[in-house]
Amino acid sequence: xxxxxxxxxxxxxxxxxxxxxxxxxxxxxxxxxxxxxxxxxxxxxxxxxxxxxxxxxxxxxxxxxxxxxxxxxxxxxxxxxxxxxxxxxxxxxxxxxxxxxxxxxxxxxxxxxxxxxxxxxxxxxxxxxxxxxxxxxxxxxxxxxxxxxxxxxxxxxxxxxxxxxxxxxxxxxxxxxxxxxxxxxxxxxxxxxxxxxxxxxxxxxxxxxxxxxxxxxxxxxxxxxxxxxxxxxxxxxxxxxxxxxxxxxxxxxxxxxxxxxxxxxxxxxxxxxxxxxxxxxxxxxxxxxxxxxxxxxxxxxxxxxxxxxxxxxxxxxxxxxxxxxxxxxxxxxxxxxxxxxxxxxxxxx
Length: 349
Hints:
Elements lengths: L1 E3 L2 E3 L3 E3 L1 E2 L9 H6 L5 E3 L1 H6 L3 H6 L3 H5 L5 E3 L3 H6 L2 E5 L4 E4 L6 E4 L1 H11 L3 E3 L11 H21 L5 E6 L5 H12 L5 E4 L8 H12 L8 E3 L5 H9 L4 E3 L2 H7 L2 E4 L2 E4 L19 H5 L2 H9 L3 H28 L2 H11 L3
Helix pairs in contact: 6-7, 7-8, 8-9, 10-15, 11-14, 13-14
């Protein structure tokens, strides 16, 4: 269990992504009905718009977005890496141009923590330096050094009771992963995150890197694999001892008509579903499957109706959160291997 000032979450847990203080196509009430216990929100985006001071003046992030359960906020470093025109990386911080108006800013370890504290996050993430895959060993070694430096500065800046997680880097280099894990584990963090994976290295290489990253991390603290992933990624990582996951895949795929079922994926746009009266998944108890046919969901998608995104997202998030419930049940019942084999057969790609 992860305990916060806004409630607890049972692990392993999947956190739906609410980038702009909202999970796309979902209301807070709908998120509760599908079983969400904790959400992830985006420090970089909320800092640029509407600004953490405005959010704080309106009662903090929970009140601002109408969600009274736990919220984890990232540090913003990955978004600078992936979305903004990165100007320069130095030991001071990340200098970048806003993707909104081009305004130049700098994100430092100190400002990343202060922004998250002002937002009112329950779980804050340290600023780290994420590098692309593939990268040279020298480039990854530099990011490991800088991430450890920034981790110490984040700890020194922290002033509130919110949890603070450190982040392990190291790319796919075994010795650098171990070095980073040892250095982050030696610091007084409340949890440990594994960063720099799911950036193009593929499932097998990601699992290999995960194997030698997890071992040095303390088992009594939550271990969070950032930005992962597919049902197979989640089951395989959970089997290795990962406690927390987040990914845009279920919500983004829903808006693009790709739906997850216990029998594999369905692309609802396909003509074969035009007259299909069956629910998406006959064994699914979500609102979408209880009330609507594949034919209707295809009609909504093909006509561009807003309801398509809503119903598809309800289903995909319900699927992911039910998968986490199944994982927890199988761990308790010592029947995990059967679930692992089943998911691998249906989501091997």
